[in-house]
Amino acid sequence: xxxxxRRQDVAIIASIAFVAILTGVMIxxxxxxxxxxxxxxxxxxxxxxxxxxxxxxxxxxxxxxRARLGGWDEAERNRNLFALIRVHWARHRVDIWTALLAAxxxxxxxxxxxxxP
Length: 117
What we know:
Layout: H1 5-29, H2 32-58, H3 81-92, H4 96-115
Helix pairs in contact: 1-2, 2-3, 2-4
């Protein structure tokens, strides 16, 4: 369980960097379907991380802004991505982070629609 906010920021940024590296490898070495899935996953990861960092900057005392990575207890049951999206949507509606998250989900869904049948 990550308790420090700075360590949590490093973990989030490291996960984005890891996804970006994997996406780059997929673009260079794989078929278009896998490259598109990687781009969609990278886009949705960037969108979710951007929403989280914006919430932490604007509302530092919000329970979602104080949530930690890892661990689970009864008090944290409503601290998830859907709660983050609800709060962000209520405050900002459509912005760059919402668009990135939506685009990533749509890309992954479109590729799954093409590949699965």
